[in-house]
Fold these 4 entries.
Entry 1:
Amino acid sequence: MKDFLIIGAGITGAFIARELAKYDVDTVVIEKESDVGNHATLANSALVHSGHDPEANTLKAKLCVEGNAMYPDLAETLEFPLLKSGGLLLAGDDERKALMDKYRNALDNNVPSVRWFERAALLEREPGLASRVAAGLDLPTTMVTFPWEVAIAAMENAIDNGVAFHKNTEVTRIDQESEGFAVHTDRGVFRAEYVINAAGAFAERIAAMAEEEPPFRITPRRGEYMVLDRRNEGLIKHALYPVPSEKGKGVLITPQTHGEILLGPTNTAQESLEAVPTTKQGMERIKTGAGSLLEKIPYEETIRTFAGVRASSSHEDFYIQPSKADERFIHVGGIDSPGLTAAPAIAAYVVDTFIRPRRPLDSNPHFNPKRKTKPLYKTLDDVDKNARFKADGRYGRIICKCERITEGDVVDHIGRTLGATSVKGVKKRARAGSGLCQGGYCEGEIIKVLAREHGTSPLDIDYYEQGTPIFLKETKVKP
Amino acid sequence: MKHFDIAVIGGGAGGLAAAEKADRLGMDVVLLEREPFLGGILNQCIHHGFGLHHYKEELTGPEYAMRAIDDIERSGVTIKTDTTALDYKKLGGRFTIRYTNAEEGERTIEANAVILTSGSYERTAGGIRLPGERPKGVHTAGKAQRYLNIEGYMVGRKVFILGSGDIGLIMARRLTLEGAEVKGVAEIKPHPGGLTRNVVQCLHDFDIPLYLSHTVTDVRGDENLEGITIAEVDDAMQVKEATEKHFEVDTLLLSVGLIPDIATLGDVHYAIDPRTNGAIVDQTYQTTQDGLFAAGNALHIHDLVDFVTEESLRAALQAAAYVKGEVPPREKQVDVVTGETISYALPQRLNGDYLDKSVTFSLRSRHAYEKGTFLIKQRGETIERFKRRFINPAEMEHLVVEGGRIARGSGVEIILEGSS
Amino acid sequence: MKKELICIVCPVGCHLTVDEALNVSGNRCKRGIPYAKKEMTNPERQITSTVRIHSEVFNRLSVKTSAPIPKAKRFDIMRALDEIDLTPPVETGDVIIENVAGTDADIVASRRIEK
């Protein structure tokens, strides 16, 4: 019997797990996918928003501004990348009224240091802006992070502080019992006093297992993106936002923590909770949107396109409430934008508002908030490089030449607390395969290293999810 | 710091030829190769069709590589395999090159000249903005070829191939022989990208359909690839309505082009030609950075390895001349421009004070012609003409202009007058 | 019954038609005729493939047929290759299988693998 069971290890579930790890309680996280941060956390704008956008007096506004303020400390404590880029919200002459509305909204939301800029002041900061841009808001607290690394960091820190984690484990049924809940999965039954539904796009499905009428509906929205390769580092310094219109929040242009430029998202309603196709029309829409912000964009240097599903809900706001059937079952649903920004604040809000008043929590005297990472070899100075190389020659051997990732780095990222088990798991953690050739050269080497480190055959190494091996069979095997 | 006359980056066909040639010309040469073996992509091109120009006999890729490897092993070239070049700096007219490997760690060497023969990488799904889902099972064809021919693994059982370049065609045959079902090859252009011989012997021989003027419009599958859709495109490459065909496949191979692999070279800057994605060079294969030479697929994409070898030999000859101080400084540049029927030509510039030596132009036509004449012009006057039969965009043409023909004073224009 | 094929003797790629009496049409030069006749009566191909090898660097050794083999024997030869399991060293040209699948051709190594 556990004290707390969290369903879902996206950014929200990971931060709730870490929040609970601060207390002397038994927590388990179950995740149906093969890795942390596999859906919305994997495919989004990577932005830590200032909080200018959500409507005033909503949870989104409150938790976004609070979460934003938490990120700089978290980035140091958990050692994840954070680019303090600042943001500019840009408007054409015909959009001045909408810009003024957003300015007032930002002030209502207590967004720090917001300023109104005319074109000349904007050009001083971003000389390449499109000619139609007339005015804008300076949003200096806007930042860019590396979303799935944040989720992995929070979950690793939770695990290091005693939280149990089960991946590849899918919930099939939830029974209410006198002491709490029996959560049935394809890998056995877990019992816990409290259950937290942080299942992202699948939160409605989980809610329906706990109460007859789910209190919210997930209305998935797909956002498509385009990535320009790292040669474009410096094209822009700030995250560039258009003024939102009736059609949506529009296409952003964002400098990424590793030097790429991200363009997107589009915004398309769809039925599927997980289908993430990109489309030709989507790419055209991105070009139209991005072109209204920035004059020249080298689309021919696209290295990747992708799409993500936002777990929007029938509620405009985040739906964070205990179940009407049993207050020990807490829904954390409808976590769409600004979910990444708000996640650490959501975690504190859930625990402080819905758990501590009902169930006393003692602090965990052994809680260590810090996550220690092993920096990539290429980031070390010569002395540290030499020491590491002397201990292990594999730091001298480059596996991913585009990103300069050594075999030693890959081995480190397989061996860490939430180590990589798949090709994409290595890519998410060490960035091997994220560069120009997109794994064309290093994928085979990574499969070999994964197989060796996990003591298995290359035939058993998955691309990502279970049952997705790159190598289907060996040649020249006697029938 | 160890000093060399010339550092050659990449030990495939180009690097092997360049390094061995420079060694024979008395240069002290180092060759850096990131793989544990020499020969580059030739090692995975186990099919026939190599060597007819250069060795005057038909060889497989590995056999071609073995000849060049035998030559280099008899030479005085310092060879470092399993070694990755990390970055380049230039100080006082010399290059410093940082490399790394598991034996030495990071080291720096110095060289008077560098020859880039680092080959190419494959254009990816992201590079062509392939629509649809991103399940496991979409691979570049060359990567799958390596897995098949060197590692001994199949990536699929039911396969579709996008792109009818030679790698795509060759893989259709190889996968079929190994027991896979290749359901078709789609080519966005109205004509095949690869050689007719490969269309016949790789597709017709196995009854594999070739869909010309078709492209992939959808990729389906959640975790594993389940199927793809192709559709016909019009002259403007726009998808025609109601022409979709669906295929259930577990693998989609992309054979959609190669790109010179030089973007990761770092701190030494030089101008790039957007038509080739490789460096802009003069008739010595010198980039706009003095002492930095490029050849083979690192410079522009070749269809025949023989031409890679021969271009690299020419580059090595000039690099050695540069080191010996025999190439005059580039004070007077002569620009080379091309007519609109030519997609690109190399060199893009000429050193005006080195025109007493012959110049080899490498170029591609934009269209196919049964007959055509290439004209080299200066000040509107034809100074050289070359007649050719069966001009094809897939086949690189070479025009050699003898020394003394091109004058120092004005730009050179290359024109192709073709007829069908 | 007529059969259509594309001539691959030169880059022109003539579309040939051959009838039952082996009359060839569509050829723009005379070299198309023997090509078409050979393709109709006894088509031959070179096979290149790999065999298993236990090397430090390569999992497979590239091999080829020493001479063209009847096209119909392609898959018999592929099956014969599945039986091979080698240990280095192997030299370019080493015979791996003699007289493979009853053809007069051998399977030979197309590269050297020292260890």
Entry 2:
Amino acid sequence: MDAVTVPAPAPAAAAGMPPRRVLGAYLAEARSECLRYLRAPGFMLPIVLFPTMFYLLFGIVMAKSEGTDATRYLLASYGVFGVMSPGLFGFGVSLAIERDGGLLTLKRALPMPPGAYLLGKMLMAMAAAAMVVLLLLAMALGLAHLPLTAAQAGALLLTGTLGVLPFCALGMFVGTLIKGQGAPGMLNLVYLPMSFLSGLWFPLPMLPKVLQQIAPVWPSYHLDRIALAAVGLGQGAWWPHALALAGFAAAFLLLAARRLRRHG
Amino acid sequence: MNEPLQPVARLAGAVKRYGAQLALDGVDLVLRRGELLALLGPNGAGKSTSIGLLLGLLRPDAGRAELFGLDPQRIEARRRIGVMLQTAMLPPTLRVGELLRLTASYYPDPRPLAESAALAGIGDLLKRPYGRLSGGQQRRVQFALALCGRPELLFLDEPTVGMDIDARRRLWAAMRALVDEGCSVVLTTHYLEEAEALAQRVAVLDKGRVLSEGSVDELRAKVALSRIRCLSDLDAEAVARWPQVASASRAGGRLQIATSAAERVVRRLLDADPELRELEVQRAGLAEAFTELTRETAEQEAA
């Protein structure tokens, strides 16, 4: 009856950490990372405004005469355009600034669980990407009355949420090359030309032949192919493009990890 | 586990090069439980490099760095330390309470949030975004982050830079309270009075080597200098040539003399200038001891 269990004094000196608290640390890191950017209008506004404004103008208002196919096509490509930036900027700019400002050094000195820093940024980028896709979907369905099945909408959302990852890796790599305030400019030099060259602004067939041929070099080209397949405009299988993206992600991640280990 | 004899942190023959430049040239340091060690030295002496090695941010090229007998890069070792670095731009949009909660989440047995805030004197700032705080308030928040994990060892790199006198005194009091709890502290500082007020042991570094290590009194005794100040017309340059006078100069009408034999010099002064007034004799502070120590090595190297 008197089975009162006396809690053993925590062996604080042994510095063991129960798995629940380790998980809690990962969650706290991800939560802080999301909070800090949601509260930073300088970060969130461009990410949300550019794709939605472009889509409203070119995909809905001006595409009225061309029927729903243009609206459908541009939903995919502006979706990709919108998904790239939280990956590139969320990772690249913040890493460049935090390497410069000493926050990364402090985090490395603190007992933050391994990978929590990068995992937190990754989740933040995925959430921002999902938000951009949801906004575009709402505009396509609500304003342009685009006939889109639930499966198609869901597939596009999934494409965007996972499709941000190779751009996270690319942004992380650029963030390891540059310190401080130079990063946004450098990332725009990657972001804007790459969007144009992979047919996110004008359909690829409207671009010169040479540019069409080199388009598969860009990760955004492959994500665009998958996004088009998601909304029902696919040509051929989508999975080779997914493999290509996985390859890009792995390659940039490795490069970035090597530089981080060497230069911190 | 009975480990009062085991050092909390240790550098043994630590060597660190940055390219051709030798930043640490065989440094030995031992920190014991419940002890506050101050690292003093001019810029580039190797203070930050020593701390970087102990935190596992850098790898020694030769020798060893240990925390609680473990490699500092092991997370088990770092879960027992708290850190306040010289520069750390924390996310400006996060509130102070959120930063505290995040940092506390890394530790197995952190302090309650209110206790950390009270110790660092930031109880009234918890709801404020970090970016809106003044420089001194930000430093206090960083101090709270350093102690929130109930660390057994605290690294404080120039903690009171940018603080007003009042805030500095409060931080000193908090540091004393932590040491009384049994926490060890490694403190680097430019303010010698800070080391004098707080440290049980002082290590003076210069050019990557430990010049002197010991209690504040031992360090003072090592450079047994006294400071004499008086109003007198005597020529400072002539006095400087007297035996056992280390230096003499004139500042604001007063003659200032540093000497290892105050009694003799005072007698000779009074003989030489019967008009002498306002005589003061003081034991050298850490500042004099420190300049004397680093000056000696500079002279040895020049020779």
Entry 3:
Amino acid sequence: MSATRASKSLLALSQQEELEDLPKEDDDDPLNTSEDEGNSDGERKHQKFLEAIVSLDGKNRRKLAERSEASLKVSEFNVSSEGSGEKLVLSDLLGPGKASSSLSSVKKQLNRVKAKKTVELPLHKEEIARIHREVAFNKTSQTLSKWDPIVVKNRQAEQLVFPLNKEPAAFAPIEHTLSGWKARTPLEQEVFNLLNKNKQPVTDPLLTPMEKASLKAMSLEEAKMRRAELQRARALQSYYEAKARREKKIKSKKYHKVLKKEKAKKTLKDFEVLQKVDPAAALEELEKIETARMMERMSLKHQNSGKWAKSKAIMAKYDLEARQAMQEQLAKNKELTQKLQATSESEEEKGNSEEEGEVLVPDVVNEIQMNGDGPNPWMLRSRPSDTRKIEVQKEPEHLPEPVANEASESEEEERPVAGEEETLLKEFEERRQLRKKSELSQDAEPANIRETKDSSSQEMLSELKSLSQKLSRADQQPRKQKVRSVGPGPQGQREEPAEEEEEPMLFQRPERVQTIEEVEELGRDESLQPMELPSHVPEGQPLERNTSDQPSTPKGKKRKEPMIDLQSLLTAKSSSVKSLAIPTAVQEDEEERAQKQMINEAFAGDDVIQEFLKEKRVAVEASKPKAVDLTLPGWGEWGGVGLKPSARKRRRFLIRAPKGPPRKDRSLPNVIINEERNIHAAAHQVQVLPYPFTHHHQYERTIQTPIGSTWNTQRAFQKLTTPKVVTKPGHIIKPIKAEDVGYRSSSRSDLSVVQRNPPKRLTSHHKEQLKKNSAH
Amino acid sequence: METAPKPGKNVPPKKNKLKTKKKPRRYWEDVATPTAAGTSPEPPPNKKRKREVRPERPKNTRIPKKSWNSKKRQVQRKSREHRNPAPQGTLSGAQDPFPGPAPIPVEAARKFRRIDKSKKFPDCKPQTQSRLEVAEAEEEVVSVKAARSELLLAEEPGFLEGEDGEDTAKIRQADIVEAVDIASAAKHFDLNLRQFGPYRLNYSRTGRHLTLGGRRGHVAALDWITKKLMCEINVMEAVRDIRFLHSEALLAVAQNRWLHIYDNQGIELHCIRRCDRITRLEFLPFHFLLATASETGFLTYLDVSVGKIVTALNARAGRLDVMTQNPYNAVIHLGHSNGTVSLWSPAMKEPLVKILCHRGGVRSVAVDSTGTYMATSGLDHQIKIFDLRGTFQPLSTRTLPQGAGHLAFSQRGLLAAGMGDVINIWAGQGKASPPSLEQPYLTHHLSGNVHGLQFCPFEDVLGVGHSGGFTSMLVPGAAEPNFDGLESNPYRSKKQRQEWEVKALLEKVPAELICLDPRALAEVDVISLEQQKKERIERLGYDPKAKVPFQPKPKQKGRSSTASLVKRKRKVMDEEHRDKVRQNLKQQQRQQQKQDKDKPTGARPSALDRFVR
């Protein structure tokens, strides 16, 4: 080992010596060459040889500095100027002496190392896995989302046919098949000749030459030009539109005001010019303006009835500006609605009427004047009579008035913001309604009674005759009595049976119009039902029980669906048939017998009606949901025989059943409809709502069309009952592929690749993170 | 389960059909009443009464006009129907002037519509919307197809028309028989059977076969068109009623004590002792149920396909001897002595509806084929027509000199009433209207008192059983001219009948499905739906479909302070509240509008009314 090392060092030494020698020799060289030029060639060769030898050793290969002075005339006495033809430029001196130091790269590395901070910890394994998963999920869902439309389509498809790869229906169009066909037989030739003569297409049968020519009529350049033109026009249009839109959006009121004024000025100017230039046209223009004015008069514009006006009306109380705006509006309205010719007259009238109004009913008019700034002359004129009417009505309508007032008051309390105008309007509305109501009630009553009279007068039966007499008596009775009978509270209830005999027909007429107040006072409406027929009802106990048991139903409903009078229904006189062929058995004393029988049946019939009504009552009672009484007698208080639990307890533990839906036969006196549910049929009904439906009505609509062949034509039946999925027997049904639906096949491979090694492509963020992790 | 004959698929043309009074009119013109005299545009023929048998071809005067009409209509439609603008080039380049299938007028298709499109579901999910759209489109296609196949209903109903001002009721059977063709004339005949006393009768569903049951035990079944007697026996017992079962091969006879079933050879197949003292029989063909009304007051349903009694209902109204069925919904109508008519279904122990019709007892009840009208006659000599569509109110009333003991509706809505020995027939205006009782359409005198009455299906014939035997009288326009060849084919062979029998048995409707409104079966059972929902909520402890109360999401940078959370919550709550209020207001407005609409406007409002204060 030591020996080898020694030898190596020796070798190195010798080499070094050689190296050291070399420059020396070089230094001498020029001298030598100057001394003897003849040897110079040989020396150089020798030197090269040496070099070659040295270079044989690979380790210490070094590029030797080579002298390359071109001048041959090197002398020690003078500097040769040969080869220095170029001048030295100053800029050459400015550059760094050394091109670049070899240390710069090292420096850079050093800097980089210095700049690095402390190294981050690598992420957890789980974290990395999670990131991978996330990325993979995103990628996968992206790839999969392209299937969504197909899935939706397949779900909604009426029918799916498997297997999916179907042969493309390659039907060559008939023209193609015919193109290769030639006329052969004489008949064919003749036909084709004819066709040719008329220039009918033969080989390409769709277009005649004329049509083709017309198709080609427009040249390419023309088309291009036209297209360009159109494009320009469209662009212009869009610019203008955009501009208009922008201008329209400007909210500045001032801007609009200025704009409006400008416009008005412009039109005025135009009009003046037009007047000078073309008076006829100007007249026309004037007419136009006039018609516009008329139109406005007719329309509801500027009537303070619009949305804006209403909002302003609310604000007018507090906002001066709003009030002004409203007034402006009203003034405009006035201006528009004024008749042009008779301005002065109407003004006079207005003044008069105002005075009148003040004299007659000052308060009302004052009120109105306070509120409305621009009163309509029509309204003013009609107001006095109106108020008078109201005063007249006030006596009979004593009850409704305060109620209505109360209502309005309460409303006001709720919405204190409501403007005066609104309240005024409301008042008017109320008054109008009240008047209508009273008129109606006044009108309707006599009419009703007349009706009943008519029907009853037709009645042949003695019983009903008496009834009609009673009725006529009732007719004469003042209205007050009726109100009394309708009566206050439980006292009236006791009196009822007695009264009923007095005026039964009144009770049979529930459609008689009554004021709401009367009805509300009623509380119990049983007396109004036609069930309480006068004649054979056992008085006292049973009737009372009935009336008290039946809870009061809302009156309004009753009035809406007038109960048809059962009695009249059954006894309605029907015109008898004069038959051509009268049964032989009856022919002799037809009339007499009929009369007799009629009377008999009439008397028998009453019983029938009573029975039926009783039955109906029982049915109604039975169908009502029962209240559950959970009181335990003796619980928490004294118990025993004859002791009843306290009323408070009973109230507390009585679970009232919810009121069932109204009976279907409530307005049909001659019908009892069984409200019981048919559970056997219900078992066959659909009991669940399938998925996309949220309400049963929606679902019912889809199953309304019967699909059986009994109700449909054969084709319709087949269409309605096509199977949802059709499979070809004996074929393998492969899963759907991208090619099947028109995608390129890559999508599938993509998907599979992603699934195999998911985190292949990462987002930049993740990439950075991963790089960081992997760096350490 | 509607039993109305379907429009399509009646195939074979009917040769022997009675066409008494046929003019070259089409059924869509049937608005013109047959009784309207003097409305005919043709000059009156020299015959006294114009009672032409329908000629082989329609008269020339009408044809060109009609064809012109139809063509014009088509042209008009074409422009509208130009949905497929791609002209189908033919080989020669010529285009079809009427491309695509022939258009169907909207009215024709509307008849077959079942979905009421006026009701909208504006706020439903897109999936639901698409499902609804699919259903509606389907229905439209189906209805158009049905309307298109109406073309196949080639036959037209007959009618009777008097000369100007002449009452059709004055036209006697002899006149009609004289005017019609021989085949139709042969359908008018009398059977003089005085010996075995008043007869009940029944036609089979195809209208081909007739069975007669005399009070004194005479039972006969015959193919009445060919007059071929199938069997004739005497059961040696009083016969109260007689009825064919699902086919003409079986007939049920209500005898004095029990119910017997015979085949068409007269062989007794069954004696059903659980049904005793039967007075009336009804057969429900789609349910294979024989409904029997007994003297003891029981209404019994017998399933003839399995031979079991489905239910026996106690009507609790004494002796039952008035019964009929509603062909639309298979509900049985019973008339009672207290003037009520009760409607029964085997699924319910109580009557579905009870209607007080007459002051005296009810003598007879009949329901028309669409199930819309019910005619009743009572001891008070009145005859009434009731509306069965929910209201059960009388539409028209008439007092007769003698009350009608028997009533029958024809397929096209003619009402026949038997009063003593007289038959009166009333016709309505148009097809779906109740018979107007003003003027009888036809009258006929019989040789005995009426005991049974039935219109023959698919033939313009009314069969009357009376004390003097049986009379088959011609009533032009009584029956449906087109029959469904697959459902009730009068010309079917034995094989066809057997196949039909199997099919009908397979399609048998369960008895419990009989209810007042058969369409209700296509509705969701809301009560059990609610019940299930409630149960589910109870089971889960919460309502999975309830709207979750708004929970604000936590936000960062100090914006998630409690106050701001509360504020956000409040905001949402207020918005919801506002929505509610808005909806309420809308509803109120709607109600107000409704009320305003309902308010009767006495006189027409004048323009000056606005100034009246």
Entry 4:
Amino acid sequence: MNASVKVLLRGSSLLAALIVLHPTVFASVDDAQSFALQAAEPYVKEGFQVREDYWGGDLGSGEKKAVRQQLFKGNEYWFWLGTEVERAKISVHIYDSDGKLAEEPDGWQKGHFAAAHVIPKTTGSYFVIVNIEESPEERTHWALVYGFR
Amino acid sequence: MIPFPKYLKLSAIAASGLILCAQGAQVPQHIDIKQLSKTVEDVVVPLPNEIFGALNKLGAVNWKEHVRSDKGTNFTERPRIALLLGTVIADGFIAVQAEDAPTVKEIGQRVLTLAKGIGVGNSITPHAKAIIEAADKRNWDGVRQELDRTQNSVQQAMNEVHDEKLSQLVSLGGWLRGTEVLTSVVSKHFSADGAELLHQPDLLSYFQTRLQAMPEFNVPIIREIENALGQVKPLIDVGKARIPPESVKKINEITTRLGGGITTRD
């Protein structure tokens, strides 16, 4: 068999293997980010500037992650969390530097999207707690974006 | 026997108590911050316009007097270019606050030149073009968005080639310039709320840690910034106390000196 046929065959079997693999194998934090941005979309019309920078990673079901963020009194912030795992249930909540819940009551949680709203009473560090409450996957990608006005 | 209206009232109290309990069970009202220490992610450094926006809400600011459009020195050392790039992007946000279209366009070009100098020009070209187009249309929200995209693209491109430290210097340059302008504005028209915007001790610690991990950058300005952050830290890490006018003035002196060091050759 000549070398080019061998390469072609090897390439075809690799392609076949890739096709039968579960789609989540190819999922990434970038996918999670696009869902987080999707959640943020309606707020742009309300004057929120959504940051390009974001946090992301993967967590097991029931695991939490804390993100520390500097917030400024006078601004209003929304944090949007997303994952590509549609059957996952996720949440996001915001605490001040004393560990006291600091968010407004209009935060929401809809399956693989969640959002939290904060109007900081003081300028300083806040903790954003990301939680993968339930997920059918062993590891669930997440991404958190925020916007301010 | 309990009278019906009182029964109703008690039921309502019990029901609201149950609702509160249910919410309390779902979302804890308090968490132990100390327990989080191992799971805390790094901060996302705020954009200068995040601070400027909060500052604007405290009263009218004459942004025009803070606009800076000099082209500055051309450096060859990559850490110096990275710091300068951060300050130039911050200058872009200031020019947007001042709605100064010619300066915004100059800054768009300058950002592109600096990005090329650091080897990430390709990822910036479309953003520089978009900044100039949005400035022509006086679409200020568009310029702000593009400046954020520019900084993000520069940093992503640097991270991809494992130049994370240079990426952090871009953020630091922007933060220093933002702090210089913030303290200048607050020094001129002091208010406790304005001074409170300087309460950023964790962010300062973040930069200090990053600078300590850059011993290979044998550039005097980097060490100067490292020392200066040590002087600024006690002035802003005041807990729940207020930051006095003298501290704001002192921080302004320090950041102005550093700003001069970033833009001019040693």
